[in-house]
Amino acid sequence: AFEWCYAGVRPGSTDTPDGMFCATNHFVNPEWPYPAPEDSPDWQTYLRRKAMLRQAARHRGAITAGRMRRIMSTPVRLGGPFHRCTRYQLVVEPAEMAVQMKVSCGENWVELPLTRYLDSRQ
Fold it and tell me: Which of 20, 51, 86, 95 is most buried as measured by Cβ atoms within 10 A of its Cβ?
């Protein structure tokens, strides 16, 4: 996985266990020329990232799309990554060619099947 913005592309963080990728609202790779954001009560990007990694490690090898949606929907106060300022969340299932998305104004996850756009057999 890569972190990408107008200033270029850099490899994603190496501080996660093999096979895991976790992103919140900051660039993790220290090579980026940006200051680290402060983890204020209105942001909590580091706290949320740590919570997600902790949950992922706890359920390692048993994370389904449904479990990932539950993990991502768990509020910070209960040890999860969901914060009142969360605007959108994505659960990506490459093998199923599907993305599930939740936006802040909605209560439910919406599945976006991508097979019609990515499957070369159609």
Answer: 51
No. of H helices and E strands in the chain? Answer: 3, 5
Exposure string of 72-94, with b = 16+ CB inside 10 Å and e = fewer, is bebebeeebbbbeebeebebeee
Report d(CA 36, CA 31) in Å as an integer.
Answer: 11
Distances, alpha carbon 18 to alpha carbons 22, 57, 115, in Å: 11, 11, 27
pLDDT digits (tens, 9 = 90+) for 94-110: 888 889 999 877 778 99
pLDDT digits over 18-74, tens only? 667 777 777 777 787 887 777 777 778 888 888 888 888 899 889 899 999 999 899
Of 91, 81, 100, 75, the residue nearest 24 (C-alpha): 81
